[in-house]
Amino acid sequence: MNAFTKHPVWAMAFRPFYSLAALYGALSVLLWGFGYKGTYELSGFYWHAHEMIWGYAGLVVIAFLLTAVATWTGQPPTRGGVLVGLTAFWLAARIAVFIPGWGAAASGILGTLFFWYGAVCMALPVIRSQNQRNYVAVFAIFVLGGTHAAFHVQLHNGNFEGLLSGLQSGLIMVSGFIGLIGMRIISFFTSKRLNVPQIPSPKWVAQASLWLPMLTAMLMAHGVLAWLSAVFAFAAGVIFTVQVYRWWYRPVLKEPMLWILFAGYLFTGLGLIAVGVSYFKPAFLNLGVHLIGVGGIGVLTLGMMA
């Protein structure tokens, strides 16, 4: 086991996690496309949404953060046996969801532990280095795990209306991580690749890009103050789209590794705006969900893994 954990694949979180996310994402889409019906406890529709949000996107989020935090803090990355254990929680949650009867409940517990375990893995280097800037990222991972737990509580209670709110809260929470990560890398990558000035963002804008979606997700998960969550989502979407405009350089169009990040960030912003508008025009909710899920998460995660 010791030799196994010392293999280079376990030296950085992105190595096993990006590979697993790519494979599982492709497999899940194929299963959904060919009509997988799910189990009695978790039907195919809810399985599809659940796995795309917390199974696929959640894994990419943890992969990036546990890799980047080593650079941000100057501390050793999550690796070896700790990373193997974290991977085991994710794999067990993915397998359990296919098991009728107790599988959905087990997946709920294991999946939530995956996120909270990941939050602890990020918290340790952040606390050791007193890197206060990233305390919020640690908290956000706990919140992502909380949205997963909230969904499974509603599933256990048979509250199907609450399930939709739970799915939306998880999706919006992932958009918050897109805000956090995009703020830190898009202008930076653009500057380095094109040899142009990096466009700075006000501190409040950088914080709002995570806090506004996170507050939206928490309100949605608890089913309270829908009007306020709509305001937060709309405001976050405006910030995202304005930032795309601020960071933009025309030569970005010639660099696929750059424009895919801009496209994903823009789609996420437009999706958040649509979610906000859906409080007044419910038909916009479906548009917002797919702009974030397909245009934002789908495009940006592929760009980041590439």
Query: Which sequence of SSEs, written as H and E, runs from N to C?
Result: HHHHHHHHHHH
Helix share, percent? over 70%
User: Counting H and I runs of at least 4 residues, what is the number of helices?
Assistant: 11
Runs with pLDDT <50, length 5+?
Answer: none
Task: Work out the number of β strands.
Answer: 0
The major sheet is characterized as:
none
Question: What overall geometry do the principal axes of the alpha carbons give?
Answer: globular
The mean pLDDT is: 91
In whole angstroms, the N-to-C terminal distance is 30 Å
What are the main properties of this structure?
306 residues, mainly alpha, 11 helices, 79% helix, globular
In brief:
79% of the residues lie in helices and 0% in strands. By secondary structure, it is mainly α. It is globular.
Structure report:
With 306 residues, the chain is mainly alpha-helical. Helices cover 79% and strands 0% of the residues. The chain has eleven helices and no strands. It has helices at 2-5, 14-33, 44-73, 80-96, 103-128, 135-157, 160-194, 203-222, 226-247, 256-277, 284-305. The chain is globular. The mean pLDDT is 91.
List the topology elements.
Elements: H1 2-5, H2 14-33, H3 44-73, H4 80-96, H5 103-128, H6 135-157, H7 160-194, H8 203-222, H9 226-247, H10 256-277, H11 284-305
Helix pairs in contact: 2-3, 3-5, 3-6, 3-7, 3-11, 4-5, 5-6, 6-7, 6-8, 7-8, 7-9, 7-10, 7-11, 8-9, 9-10, 10-11
